[in-house]
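In the present case, backbone shapes were mapped to integers, as reproduced here:
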Amino acid sequence: MTPARSLARQLSWQASHDPLTGLVNRREFERRLERAIGDGRRSEESHVLCYLDLDRFKIVNDTCGHSAGDELLRQISVLLHSNVRKSDLLARLGGDEFGLLLYQCSLKEARSVVEKLIDRVRAFRFLWHDKTFTIGVSIGLVEIDDRAESRAKVLSAADTAMYAAKEGGRNRFHVYQHDDRDIVRRHGDMEWVSRIVKALEEDRFCLYAQRIVPSDVQRRSRDRYELLLRMRDEDGNLVAPGEFMPAAELYDLMPAIDRWVVRTLFSRLALTGETHSDLKPLYMVNLSGASFNDEQFLAFLREQFWLHHVSPATICFEITETVAIRNLNQASQFIYQLKQLGCCFALDDFGSGMSSLNYLKNLPVDYLKIDGHFIKNVEHDVIDAATIEAINHIGHVMGLQTIAEFVENDAILEKVRLLGVDFVQGFGIDTPKPFECDRLTPWNARSLKSPVRSTKKRPALIARAESAIDA
């Protein structure tokens, strides 16, 4: 073979293969998939596309670095390739995602193939220095026959099925069916992804604020607000977070949303001036688990404090108990570094976990926001009342302040006040209002008189709170 022909062959191979694993790359895989779709339309034989995504790969990357992650991908590629037919096509599509094209294969046969792959990957142990890791693989399957549409739609269907497998518990497979409820819901989530990205680009998110006040009307205290997120749709209508947050969390959009919240809040606080005053309110900002585990997010926060000259003493970050205990050491370090800046921290939904009190002593937080599940029924449920009392007592022993959420009427307010909870929040105190920090009026404690038991659907306390804020 001449040098010129050898070089041409080498360049051709490089153009169609992944340099790390030696497998076919995405470009070549999509080219052959297009051919398989055309073949499926013309003949009675079917093929099956499998979309594979490794489970727990990120743990290896984050714990041991990218060199370990690369070596894991190389070993997994060899493992997968050795467990499929020579006639099938295995490709690395990017990151820890792989594509497998099973030629002239029924769905029944494909199920057997992917079950074997899942078992092989489950049994695999990755060794890196003194550490051993177990991983898994989630696989989405879609049949390619005479009903197959475009390459993009077939790939989207396989990707959707793969995510359904992950939601089903990981380390399993899911077959795409047009009338599958999981698939229909997944398509809905993916539509939300597009809408969320567009809303970020067009700045259609907006902040709302809900007041948090002392349960003791005699107590003098700075104003406190929890910042809440809303989205405006294409027609200008408000969209509640419960509609778009699940998709944002599933498709890793929460870091971008959290950054939008911080930038927007800080820029508005900077416009009001006197951000270093001790008399300024305290703003409580929710952080997602994705941002909490993002190594770059802390640097982003430091930059925003410096850029907008916002005093850290005016900011309290909230994280849920579930996020905090998922990685206790990392959570403690993250909280400690922000507290060094002067911020404070609240542990949200406290009491929802099974080992709350054991974990609490290792987290340097300032506030406990008692899980609303206990608050909503406290006037009728003695066990909920006892739980609140216990959480409140332990929080006070540790020098923490407690907040009762979901205080929706006068009877709940009276009950949590008698139990000694420090602060209250909910629709019985204040309804969320569009956030304009220069228009927030100081809280008038006199509007919280002795609780009045009201049997009306709209307690008098709500009207008093709204009139105090709107005045």
In short: Residues 181-201 form the longest helix (21 residues). The chain is about 45% helix and 20% strand. The longest strand covers residues 205-214.
